[in-house]
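INFO  loader      accepted 1 record
INFO  loader      residues=203
INFO  predictor   begin
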Amino acid sequence: MTQPVVLRPRFGLILCILVWAIVAVCIVSLIALGDAGTALRYTPAFLLAAFGCWLLFWMPAVGVDAAGVTLVNLARTVRITWPAIIDVDTKYSLTIRTRDAKFTAWAAPGPSRITTYRAAKSDVAHLPDSTYGAGGSVRIGDIPSSDSGLAALNIRRYWDELRRDGQLDAATIDGTGVVTTWHTWQLIVLGALVVATAVGILV
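INFO  predictor   done
INFO  writer      dumping tokens
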């Protein structure tokens, strides 16, 4: 069986480190100036930038394991079991379709123009069978060098293997096969920082 994987946006960690470094320098500079009032007013805005960057570009992820697919998005995490999946699409970004709904992965957008331009036929060879459409066609979003394509590749490897072994033929779905968990504390922190930032700017 394919090994479990967790995929995040490739540029996310680098961007977060840069933003966090800038935020740290700004906060330290305010403190060094000795103006406690200014530091107190603007620190929430800097913290909002740091937290927002993490929320947008590093927390989101696509997890693939023996139990199913996990999509960690901005406001919620969606857990989808293998029997519930009926299609894996990459038209605009990675999208998992079930009988009742479809779920898009924030962490797996489609390829940029540069990635598309650099793609060669060899990049879309030997992919899982469910990747290919009529006449062996492949979507641009299935290029493995893109975030959507890499996520789809890992999902389809599992999915195709389970179907080939007949493990999904008689599999039962518990409810919809989808479990959603809202990111309560992240949303509370975000809201608190937004309010604190607004108050600091308006005071």
